[in-house]
Predict the 3D structure of the following.
Amino acid sequence: MFMEIKIGKKIIGDNYPVFIIAEAGVNHNGDVKLAKKLVDAAVASGSGAVKFQTFNTDVLIRQNAPKAGYQDINIGKEKSQYQMLKELELKEQDITELKEYAEGKGIIFLSTAYDFFGVELLEKLEVPLHKLASIDVVFHPLIQKIAWTGKPLILSSGMATEEEIDGAVAAFRSVGGRPEHLILLQCNTNYPANPADQNLRAMETLKKYAPCVGYSDHTQGNEVSIAAAALGARVIEKHLTLDKTMAGPDHGSSMNPDEFKNFVQAIRKTEAALGKKEKRPTGGELENMVGMRRSICAKTDIPAGTILTEEHFSYKRPGDGLVPTEKNLGTLVGKTVKCNILRDENITFDNVK
């Protein structure tokens, strides 16, 4: 059990709905107008938050850095990673405008910071929590920069070993980061990711390091996130795009607005289906009992004075009498019938002595 984390008007906790983040990421293609449409789509989907990415390309990457393999596949080899990110970079004014727009639409604004300046900007904008990408599990100074803010941190764990997770958690806590303020997300960093590579059971391992865990989903479709919710993910993020055919590194592994709305609904249905730990009849089953269960009834006419044995019993619907449990049968066997019982009539404790 972990302490509840309040994020704006939302609460992340065991007794609350999964906190769903619509990851707009860089699917705005550097266009603030498109970014605002992504905010609108996130709102329409019922997501808890919409998230972008805050980075300074010149601080993040050297100009000769190679692209990740999936980036070559998704956008081709003509542009370098530097060129690609430069075109996708949002300026301070853009981030500020998007936060104001999101809040005006009633949805929580979040952004993944990729450098110290990004954290400082987001702090200036008073975001309720911070998010770091999988690549920064091993960037301890950035983790500590966020820990110093005193705000919760969602940290994706793609590519990381358990030893690296341990190091990241230690870095967070070493400068005062509160244990209950850390949320670890299981993740695979391919875009799109193979469902067979998601290793959702690792969320149980992550609970050794943070009391709250979740899942960052780069697969195509709903299925893996549904499984994550069933396994106890309290936070789930998934990429949202306006059009999966648009040029860019992440569009093809994202969901369009209609798909994302269905995705959120699928998670909510999954949560409802999980129910509670108590085992009890649900959903009108009490009304089904009489029609579907059996009662102990007479196999043949039984005269008064008969000493009952199991040979006198039949077990038939409806279940409006004694159910044929071992306890009830054991109580009836050896008792004397007080009055005549006709074939198929219920045998009850009232008509025996």
